[in-house]
Each structure stands twice: as structure tokens, then as C-alpha cells.
Amino acid sequence: MGYRRDIEQQLSDPEQSHRIAELRQQLAAAIEAEEQLTVASQREQARADAFRTGREVLKARYTAARAEYLVEEASGQDTAEAADRPACPRSAGGCRRAPCWTGP
Questions:
Q1: How far apart are the two ends of the chain, measured CA to CA in Å?
Q2: Rounded CA gap, 19 and 6, in Å?
Q3: What is the mean predicted confidence (pLDDT) over 49-63?
Q4: What φ, ψ does residue 99 adopt, rounded to 5°?
Q5: CA-CA distance, 91 to 51, in Å (whole number)?
């Protein structure tokens, strides 16, 4: 029973009451900060996921274009069709056989 009496006495002390109110305010601020950080973290995770997805799409497009180029080169068709293909916008010489170019 003495323990409960000690707690009641501490709670009735104005200095302790002030400290408890201050701690409650700090707790509320910490909870709000945690919620904001959680939202920000989720937003950044979504951005990172979107970046990874975009990177994978670009890798797949490059691989497909490279495979198409190699197939055309192996079959001897690239010389006849290269004249019909627009110049690669990334190459200074305007190559028509660059594997990075998939056309418009």
C-alpha cells in the first residue's frame, strides 16, 4: 500500500505534475514526428521502387534492341534495312546500326 501512496503523493506535487505534463507533450510531439517520418519513408520507398522498375524496363528495351540488331546482323539484313532506319540520335556519326536505337 505504501507504493501507491508514494505515487499519489508524487502526482499531487505541482513540480511533478508539471514534469508529467511536459513529458506528455514530448510524447505527443514524438508520436507526430514518427508518423511524419513513416509517411516520408513510404513516399521515398515508392520513388525508389518506381526508379528500379524504370531501370528494369530500360534494360529490357536495350536487350531487345540489341538482340534485334544481332539477329539482323547475323542474317545479313542490316545493310539493306539500315538505309530505311533513322539515324541514332545518340551517336555523333548518326550510325544506323546502333543497338540503342529502336526507332520512333
A1: 84
A2: 16
A3: 97
A4: -70, -10
A5: 26
